[in-house]
Design a protein that fits this description.
Elements: E1 2-9, H1 15-25, E2 29-34, E3 38-44, H2 47-59, E4 66-74, E5 83-85, H3 105-111, H4 155-162, E6 183-185, H5 192-204, E7 209-212, E8 217-222, H6 226-236, E9 244-247, H7 250-256, H8 261-267, E10 274-278, E11 294-298, H9 303-310, E12 321-326, H10 338-344, E13 350-354, E14 366-370, E15 373-378, E16 387-389, E17 398-400, E18 410-413, E19 416-419, H11 429-446, E20 452-456, H12 462-474, E21 478-481, H13 483-494, E22 501-511, E23 517-525, E24 530-535, E25 539-542, H14 546-549, H15 551-559, H16 562-567, H17 573-585, E26 589-592, H18 595-605, H19 617-626, H20 640-652, H21 657-683, E27 687-691, H22 698-709, E28 715-717, H23 729-740
Parallel strand pairs: 2-5, 7-13, 9-11, 10-14, 17-20, 20-21, 22-27, 27-28
Antiparallel strand pairs: 1-3, 1-4, 2-3, 6-13, 7-8, 8-12, 9-12, 10-11, 14-15, 16-19, 17-18, 18-19, 22-23, 23-24, 25-26
Bound molecules: zinc ion (2 copies) and fe (iii) ion.
């Protein structure tokens, strides 16, 4: 008899029914059970049959499953008469919780099939699709341990659930029009299909609606209706930050955006992330993503989305593109329950909710592409909590709290690193509360009891305070990790590289070892130690928080001369004089090596963006400007001061703005490559890791890589599935804390 243990995404993806069918087909007797962390099989049969069964287990596994490890033992035969699925037994171990999975093609087809008993059922799902992480209370994955425990199955659903030949055999969230969840409008007496029809009428008429989804509420309106989009912007107090657009289908996407095969594969994958695509001159309203050459596109991923686009009612010209943006008040995590929705979305024309509880928030994931490879911007729904394997890790359980902006946290155990869904900006106390609750839920779900807590070095981060509190409560050590070092380690972990590297962290703001602002760092490091081998030339950042948003303030630190600042119309006279005063008297001034701020300053002097209304706005607009240039530059400069003064000269000489933006990107990439070559020559280290939020800039990442590869001997590690921005640093923190404990 074979005893097989299969580790990986084997829960909630139809794995046990698959094993049962395979066993029956091969005349195998025995059992299969969920053990919480793995699926365990006892299989007995003729040698050839066993071999076929064992091979097929690993090659014909269900499409949404992922086998990460297989253990096999030979045991003496027992008295089995058939092959059975036995009840879940709970054991602690390495746990693989499935992320939420977008509605599959078969369910989508049944949804619009008049003869199907789930015709137009907004919660149709099967063993291959539906919510997972966001409705899960505890492992193992069984109905009573999910939000669906509140909904007893009807007889017909129960029959499918227990029928091994059904697509819904063992599908925990199974339900139908006769049982299970229901949609309804908040504050109006409309339920089910009437509620959906009402919402369609509002959207088609240019209204704004809040819609409860898998991981939280979205705000929706017609993306081709300028005034509807503007009303949403004004109500949400979000003046220019781009909105994501949910398109009805791929052809609707292709009418508005350029789409490569690689981008299409991700856009239409079971994870269904938002993918940033090059815009065409189409009919999406100009205020959806103003002054940016890309558009965040997403496809419908729940049955409810499909019904909103395609419900068979009298509305004929329903929009094929809807704004679908996270429903949350600015700076606060995504809204998940009805009471908050009523409070937060009073400006909406309708709020469409449902009674399946969301237990863990999950925003949509956001992905860009660099050189044809994915570049994760926000890793959340569909991806979290899939672990990263880092072989050099130690067997110590860690909780790492991440950074302050774009917060995610990481739980690690053995060599597995589980990053949480996106939490958000932890400046607000309501976010701290959500962070704390999410940590508790994930700890419970993954059965990880941290033996060490990790956080950023910044003394005033809320995450630092929370880490101090948690480490005291758990009575375990607290380790604080320099921000940019954590960025580099997150890149090492994602690439499963445990050796020494030259780490380049180009970032917005991070607290340096010397108390100044870092963000243009060259490290020699491994997972244990780092040395700041070089940095960009420091400059003065004056004006506190404002200097992080208002690039013209940084520009003045470089220009120094008020007449030039006036000529460039950087700010009004009062502000210019005020800023000059701060710089001269060294008031509210701090030394900074932030490359992010240099992008802001260059964007300001080129007139591309003087004041950012959202994080990264200036850098995005500068990149968009550079991408409109067709020129190439091969200029070598010793440092960022020289680059800046050359950019300024070109600007004052009236040279083309797009070309100058391109020149800036090329020069910075070249300077970076030169510093790396020198460090590599000195240290003999041949591996380079690029991280930090600035490397979200696909033009800079691509140019830097290209220039580095000109000298063939270097190996470049970049991010793909873990964000280079602060959404990734929790992983780096966890790696370091585990290594040095
Ligand atoms: Zn399905
Ligand atoms: Zn039912
Ligand atoms: Fe950062």
């Amino acid at each position: 008899m074979l005893n097989v243990k299969i580790f990986g995404i084997v829960q909630g993806v139809g794995f046990r029914p698959f094993v049962k069918n395979l066993a029956d087909a091969n005349k195998i007797v025995g059992t299969v059970a969920n053990r919480g962390s793995y699926v365990e099989i006892f299989a007995q049969g003729a040698d050839d049959d066993l071999k076929n069964f064992f091979d097929a287990l690993q090659t014909k596994n269900p499409p949404r499953s992922a086998i990460l490890k297989v253990d096999v033992k030979n045991l003496p035969d027992e008295n089995f008469s058939e092959f059975k699925i036995v009840d879940s037994v709970h054991e602690a171990g390495d746990i693989f919780v499935s992320p939420d999975i977008a509605v599959c093609e078969k369910c989508a087809a049944e949804l619009f099939d008049k003869n199907n008993r789930r015709y137009l059922h907004p919660f149709i799902n099967c063993t291959a699709c539906g919510p997972r992480l966001t409705i899960l209370k505890n492992m193992p994955y069984d109905r009573e341990r999910t939000s669906m425990g509140d909904f007893p199955m009807c007889d017909a659903c129960a029959e499918e659930y227990f029928d091994k030949n059904s697509r819904r055999f063992d599908a925990q969230p199974i339900c139908c029009n006769d049982c299970g969840c229901e949609v309804y409008l908040l504050g109006k007496n409309l339920r089910g299909h009437d509620a959906i029809k009402h919402v369609r009428k509002i959207l088609a008429g240019g209204g704004v609606v809040a819609i409860k989804g898998i991981g939280g509420f979205h705000l929706a309106c017609d993306a081709k209706n300028f005034s509807a989009v503007q009303r949403l912007r004004d109500s949400k107090i979000r003046p220019t930050k781009p909105f994501a657009v949910m398109f009805k289908n791929i052809s609707a996407v292709e009418r508005e955006c350029f789409l490569s095969d690689a981008e299409k594969n991700f856009l239409d994958s079971p994870q269904k992330p938002i993918v940033l695509l090059q815009k065409k001159f189409g009919s999406i309203a100009a205020n959806v993503a103003p002054e940016i050459n890309k558009l965040g596109a997403i496809l419908p991923y729940t049955p409810l989305h499909l019904l909103i686009f395609d419900f068979p009612d009298e509305i004929k010209n329903f929009p094929d593109a809807l704004i679908m943006t996270s429903g949350n008040p600015s700076g606060v995590p995504i809204t998940i329950d009805d009471d908050d929705a009523l409070k937060n979305f009073d400006y909406c024309d309708a709020i469409l909710s449902h009674d399946r509880k969301i237990l863990l928030r999950a925003d949509d994931s956001v992905m860009d592409f660099i050189d044809g490879r994915p570049s994760m911007i926000r890793r959340s729904r569909g991806y979290s909590p899939l672990p990263i394997f880092f072989d050099a890790a130690k067997k110590i359980s860690v909780l790492a709290l991440g950074g302050e902006l774009k917060n995610t946290f990481c739980l690690a155990k053995n060599n597995l690193f589980y990053a949480s869904p996106y939490i958000g900006d932890v400046g607000d106390l309501r976010t701290v509360e959500v962070l704390e609750n999410s940590i508790d839920r994930m700890k419970n779900l993954l059965e990880i009891n941290p033996e060490v807590v990790a956080c950023d070095l910044h003394p005033r981060y809320q995450t630092t305070a929370l880490a101090e509190k948690i480490s005291k409560e758990l009575n375990v050590p607290l380790i604080k990790i320099q921000h940019h070092y954590a960025h580099i380690l997150s890149c090492l972990a994602e690439n499963n590289f445990g050796g020494e590297v030259i780490g380049v962290a180009f970032d917005g703001t991070g607290y340096g070892l010397d108390g100044t602002i870092w963000g243009g760092e060259f490290f020699i490091c491994d997972t244990k130690n780092f040395e700041r081998a070089a940095s960009i030339e420091p400059f003065m950042q004056a004006g506190g928080d404002k200097s992080s948003r208002e690039g013209w303030r940084i520009a003045l630190s470089f220009i120094k001369n008020l007449d030039v600042a006036r000529e460039l119309n950087l700010a009004d006279e009062k502000n210019l004089r005020g800023q000059k005063f701060l710089l001269e008297k060294k008031i509210n001034c701090v030394r900074s090596t932030s490359v992010g701020r240099i992008f802001d300053a260059v964007a300001a002097i080129l007139g591309v963006c003087k004041v950012s209304t959202y994080e990264g706005e200036a850098a995005m607009k500068l990149q968009a400007a550079a991408e409109r240039s067709t020129k190439n530059f091969r200029a070598e400069f010793k440092d960022t001061n020289e680059i800046f003064s050359e950019v300024l000269t070109r600007r004052l000489n009236g040279e083309n703005i797009f070309d100058t933006a391109k020149f800036f990107h090329e020069s910075l990439a070249e300077m970076t490559a030169q510093i790396i070559f020198e460090l590599s020559a000195r240290t003999k280290i041949k591996t380079v890791a690029l991280s930090g939020g600035v490397f979200q800039n696909s033009l800079l990442a691509s140019l830097t890589t290209e220039k580095l590869l000109r000298r063939g001997s270097l190996k470049i590690l970049r991010h793909e599935m873990i964000p280079p921005n602060d959404g990734g640093i929790c992983v780096g923190q966890a790696v370091h804390a585990q290594t040095i404990l």
